[in-house]
Amino acid sequence: MARETMTCTDNRTGKSVEYPILEATRGPDAVDIRTFYKDTGLFTYDPGFTSTASCKSKITFIDGGKGELRYRGIPIEELAGKQSYLEVCFLLLYSRLPTEEEARDFDLEIRHRSFVHEGLRNLIESFPSDAHPMAILSSGVSALSSFYYEHLQVESDAEYHEMASRIIAKIPTLAAFAYRHALGIPLIYPDIERSFTENFLYMMRAYPGGKMKITPEGEQKIRQVEIDALDTIFTLHADHEQNASTTIVRGVASTGAHPYVAISAGISALWGRAHGGANESVIAQLEMIGDVKNVPEYIARAKDKNDPFRLMGFGHRVYKNFDPRARILKKLQDQLKEELGLDSKLLRIAQEIERIALSDDYFVSRNLYPNIDFYSGVILYALKIPRSMFTPIFVIGRTVGWITQWIEFKEDPASKIARPRQLYTGA
Ligand code: ACO
Is 63 labeled as catalytic in the residue annotation? Predict the structure, then answer.
C-alpha cells in the first residue's frame, strides 16, 4: 500500500489529481500512473522508457550512479568467478544459491538436456554457409518451440523448471552448431562428461570424433583458466534487469506466445550494435584503428557531432559512473594477460583508447566509461573465440535472465499486454 502521493496539476484547466508513490526496496520509488489517461485524458511521453518502470521485479538491482549490480540481492562481486555460472542460474531462478547437492543435480540435469532434436540439426544445415550465427541461433530457438509445444501452457513449478532448464541446456549446443555450420565443418554433439562451460568450448573446438587438436606434446586440452574466464563472462551477462532485449522478451510474454519464441525475440534484439552486438563491434573497431598512433584520430571522430562514429564499448544507459561488470573483467583481463598471451597489438590499442577517453572532458562530462563489452571483446579474442561468436556467447549467458524474467512476468497478477500509446503528429 502506497503511503506517499504525488499531485499532478494540469495548468490549462487547474485540475489536480493525486497519484500513489510505490515504494522500492532499493533505488527510486515509482509514481503509479496507471489511471493517468482515465483521470486526465492525457498520455505520458517517454521514448526509450528513460523514466518509466514497466514492471515490478525482484530479480536484479542496478544502481547506475554507484555502479552497483546485484542478482537476488547478492552483489555481482560475490558471484562472478566465485560461484559457477550454473549456480548463478539456480540463484536467479530460485532466489537462493543451491546447496551442494542441488548444484550437482542441476549440473547433471543440464548436461543431460544439452542434446537437441535431429530435426533442429537439419534445420541448421539448411542455412546459407555464411549466415551469421546470431541469425541461426534466433531461428533455432524459435524452432525449438515446435519441439516443446507443451511449454505454451506452463502451470506447475515442475513445468516451469523443465521449460527453463531445457532452454538453458540447449542454447550452447545450438550456438556451437550455428558456428560450425558457418565454417562448413561437421557438428559436434555435447559430451555429458564435461561441465556446461567446458562443453561449449569443446563443441566449438573439437575435431570430428571428439578429439581436441593433437600437437607433438599430445592432445591439446581445454585449459581450466579458459573455462573459468568464460564461466565468469556468462555470469556477468546472466541478467541486467529491464534492458532492451529483456523488455522485448517480456513484451512477447505479454501476448501469451510460447516462451522460446520470446527468447528468440530477445536474441534478435540483443544482436544490435547498441546492445549485445557491441562486443563484436569493439574488436572490429580495434582492428580498424589498427595502430596505437591512430587512436587520437578516432577519439576526435567520436567527439565530432557531424560524424556518426561512436567508440564501441563506451557509454551505458544506466551506468553513469562505472560498469561493475567492466571492472571485474578489467581485472580478469589483467590476470589473463600473461597466461593466455593476449594479442598485444589489439590490447595496446584498447588500453590507449581507455587512457585517453578516461581523461578527456568529452567522455568524462558525459559519463562515458568502458562498458562490459569493451573488455569482454578483448578477453574473448584472447580465448581465440571467433568474433562472430561474441554475441552468441552473450546470448548463452543472458538466457537464464530472459527466462527468469519471463516467469516473473507470468506470475505477476499485475502483468498486462504491452501496448504503449503514441503522441500522434501526422496528418
Ligand atoms: N562514443 C561517443 N559519444 C558517445 C558514445 C560513444 N560510445 N555514447 C554516447 N555518446 C554521446 C552521445 O553522442 C551523446 O552526446 P550529446 O549529449 O552531446 O548529444 C551523449 O554521449 C549521450 O548519449 P546517448 O546516445 O543519448 O546515451 P544513451 O544512454 O541513449 O545510449 C548507448 C547508451 C546506446 C550504450 C551509447 O552510449 C552507445 O551507443 N555506446 C556504444 C555502443 C555500446 O558500447 N553498446 C553496449 C552497451 S552495454 C550492453 O548493451 C551490454
Answer: no
